[in-house]
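This protein record is not my work; I was only asked to verify it. Take the sequence as given and treat only the tokens as open to question. I have pasted the whole thing underneath without changing anything:
***
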Amino acid sequence: MIDILRRRFGLLGRNISYSFSKGYFTEKFSDEIFAGNSYENFDISEINYFTELVKNNPDLKGLNVTIPYKEQVIPFLDKLSKKAALIGAVNTIKFTKSGKLKGYNTDYYGFKKSLEPLLKPHHKKALILGTGGASKGVAFALDELGIPYTFVSREAKENIIDYNLINATTFDNYKIIINCTPVGTSPNTEACPDLPYEFFTDKHIAYDLIYNPAETQFLKNAKEKGAVIQNGYDMLIFQAEKAWKIWNK
């Protein structure tokens, strides 16, 4: 039986007072079944403080990782799961019994599990808005689902298009549009990615990794045109429970 007593977990990030994870796990741990577990935020201004954080908290058993450290934390880890290595981003860290730090990615799992129920035969290609750590997990999930994708960024690079190239033809070809940028998150809730929203239809899925607010301006604009919309809340639940399993295996 798993020893659930006196175990500490937390979230690594910057400016994370809004954190989903702390609220979620604190509520989870309020159940007497999980008595003795605790969860806290570790808000550091730069990733170089991570080593000191680990040194000063020897009783930590696991961490979630959020913006902007999903990629930056990798050099500080002892090893990666196969999928985290392929994805190139980590959002879950396990402190192993031997004292090693192992990185995992559960973002891709949460995204995949929340997207699958929405998919129809005409959802053949996806646009991924943003190229940060979260977008890498999304891309990996789409690969597993057999859905080709194209990245969109403010600057065109190799295998990346810029927003100026998105037009009616783009929307005809890409029926899944995924916002992996922070644009539209609280408190700047009136902002949204620079898209020609008039080309959304009822054949499109608009997926926003943001969960606060529950309906971003991106999702509102797509919904007005009949698109199926999904925010990031279900993804967060799935990835959090996956992280919990990793910490306990």
Remarks:
- The longest strand covers residues 7-13.
